[in-house]
Design goal:
9-stranded mixed β-sheet
Amino acid sequence: MKNVLEYLEKTVSDKHDQTAVSIGDRSMTWKEVLETSQMIGTSLARKFDVKTPIPVLAGKDTDTLCTFFAIAYAGCFYIMLNPQLPETRLMSIIDTLSCDCVVTDDENYQLGKKLCSNAVTINSLKNDTDTELLAKIREKSIDTDALYALFTSGSTGVPKGVLVSHRNVIDFIDDFTETFNITEKDIIANQAPFDFDVSVKDIYSSIKTGAQLVLIPKELFSKPTELTDYLAEHKVTTLIWAVSALCLLSTFHCLEYRKPEFINKILFSGEVMPLKHLKEWMNYYHDAQFVNLYGPTEITCNCTYHVIDKNRDYENGVPIGKAFKNREVFLLDDKNQRVCEPDVTGELCVRGTSVAMGYFNNPQQTAAAFVQNPLNSMYPEIIYRTGDLAKYNNQGELVFCGRKDFQIKHMGHRIELEEIERAMAKVSGINRACCVFDGKKSKLYGFYVGNIEKKELHGILGKTLPVFMVPGALRQIDEFPLNKNGKIDRKLLFELYGGRRK
């Protein structure tokens, strides 16, 4: 297999009249997905040369999904532009791509015209299908052709476009679906926005296996009980969600209101899962499979996983586990030597077919992160240095220890902020916690959502942490600001609450 469209075409041949994807009361069969994708793909193939980056400015919908596949049919690669992003960031991405066209849905057409003079709507591209043209494009394609680019934050302030190939996705999805037994019997609830790589697991697991994909409207994540109803009414079996999304339902005790009865797989990633939230989910789903997933966008979704053992004590945290097949995950110390012994921290590095192609039109940052394996001096071998710190526990499992840039030096001690956050999260009365270090003032801030008083919390932390790890400022807040990927926005959190005296 050399092209992800082979997933789609095989599934269509087996399940052509069955529901493929839905959102609200709208749905498409597998046959309709294929026909729509090929129609749009034909129009795009007539407009663009192969390998052209094509931005898609649209909401989460069935037609948006078809447009992704259409762009692949045209031999190009797609870039999802979230209309909710600031215009300046969208423009920065357009500039990086140096493209002269954007594909939009009807709702975002005017915004598309502001970003790019040549904006076309998805509906205007639904014309005839030229199967001969599409076949010629496929014949010349190879598996290392780009499939999509996902833009992440960049240290320079300019977004970085992580470029991912068909082969990257095929290598990962084949193993992912087999490892967690995702089949045509599953109904996958898509939580993540399409410009976040968690959605890649939803989309391509679905078209590979024939599992039905249920897109969740964004507004339901501000209506937790309605979200729970939606999962139940669509008979969802599989959640591949960001930690914050799962915590939303457990924070409001939505499973007490209604338990969607068909859920049997709950896979989470993006942040450290707070133990109390994990326990609440497990209390309702005794027989479900729970999996902690780890991996940055640059290695194509995930590189390690840990299946939760219901009889195990995770008070010291849930490990990120072991590597998926056909990739090696290893630790390097500051001298680029391999770390093998337990409880010694090193930078987590990845090699294998799933390592992405690099950053689009950004050779400098590509060269800094996608580097020659320092353990191999015999021949070229590219690895990705994640910037994440990890260690092995006594069972040989990898344990996440935080970001390199979350490791701070305070009062002469090197501290991992996640360790403080874990200690805060264990305290009764706290739902979620986050720690931020103000380097200018050399001051630790602890933010939390919960009903415990600051003075009481300070006393408890003083009994569980060294004095140099107890935050000098504790801030009780109503909710954490989240970034577009559903993670805590630490910069905005500090801007909003860091200076408040409360």
